[in-house]
Amino acid sequence: MRKNFLYFLLILTVIFWGTSFGAVKIGIGNLSPVQFLFLRTLFATIIFSIILFKTPKNKRKVSKKDIPYIMYLGFMGIGGYFIVQYTALEYTTTVNASLLVGLAPIIVAIYSCLFLKEKLELVRIMGIAMCFAGIILIITKGNVSNLSFGKTMFGDMLMLLNAVMLAIFSIGAKKILKKYDPFIVVAYMNIFALIMLAPFAFTSNFLSSDSLLSKFNDIDMKAILAALYLGATCTVLGYYSWYSAIKEFGPSRTSVFNYINPLVASIVSFMLFDEGINVCTILGGISIIGGVALNNVQNILHKKEKFKQKVVR
């Protein structure tokens, strides 16, 4: 896949991910979060399965010894990830949650530098700092007092765990993507995540007071369309593009693009729910875009240098 097209897919992915909160808000209706997540994962699994069925057997086959690791990634990035996130949101504020999950790219960058031997140049550190400053501006709308960690400690700790899970999900891809195509990995991850979610969706538990079966006749078209939209765009296209980018650019460079999410989410909230946008939202957006650009500028310059060397030859 050409790098320019991959950059396009990566930006498209984080735009879709930025719209996911609005889609969930519109579509969830009387479903519990885990039930709605099950529907989303179900639709994604159907799409993945159709494409897998048309893929040659030798390309879609994975080694039995790699299945536990793929299941582990499915838990970290889909099943367990969203269960922890939804539980955390019961005990903390949306502001705190968004800020804490924004630590994931920083965790990825530090880990990649220490253990994966990725260079963390000054320009990239500046880029990450700009992104994090931007996310604070957007989430707090310039009023830092909106952050309140004292009364929400349990939820905040869960969101911090959520950020670590997202980081592990991104870093863990490096190993498995050396052996398989990103689509194959993501497809099986999603299938395993669906199996993990089923017990929570179809029983009464701490995440859901009743079974999805008891609500089956009451599921409205909004929920179905929203889950289908999320499954097709945020999961199938999104996770495939994310893992393709990790394979090409590395975990730390890819993870920084996730900072675009709050900007898109703010714009979508303004358009659909009339939630205000102020000067801090705009400044935060500029800071995030600038930070993402800084994180990838050396990659672009290196590419141009290679092109010049070819021309000279």
Descriptive key words:
mainly alpha, single chain, 14 helices, 313 residues, 0% strand
Question: Please, could you describe this protein's structure?
Answer:
With 313 residues, this protein is mostly helical. The protein has one domain (3-127, 148-250). It is built from 14 helices and no strands. It has helices spanning 3-27, 33-54, 57-60, 67-88, 94-101, 104-115, 122-140, 153-171, 173-176, 182-201, 221-249, 251-255, 260-273, 279-312. The radius of gyration is 20 Å and the shape is globular. The two termini are 25 Å apart.
* Integer-rounded radius of gyration: 20 Å
Instruction: State the low-pLDDT regions, or none.
Output: none
How much of the residues is beta strand, in percent?
Answer: under 5%
Query: What does the main sheet amount to?
Result: none
> SS-based structural class?
mainly alpha
Helical element count? 14
- Helical amount among residues, as a percent range? over 70%
Number of beta-strand segments: 0
Structural domains: how many = 1
Task: Give the N-to-C terminal Cα separation.
Answer: 25 Å
The helix/strand order is: HHHHHHHHHHHHHH
Q: Which descriptor suits the 3D outline?
A: globular
In terms of topology, how is this protein built?
Layout: H1 3-27, H2 33-54, H3 57-60, H4 67-88, H5 94-101, H6 104-115, H7 122-140, H8 153-171, H9 173-176, H10 182-201, H11 221-249, H12 251-255, H13 260-273, H14 279-312
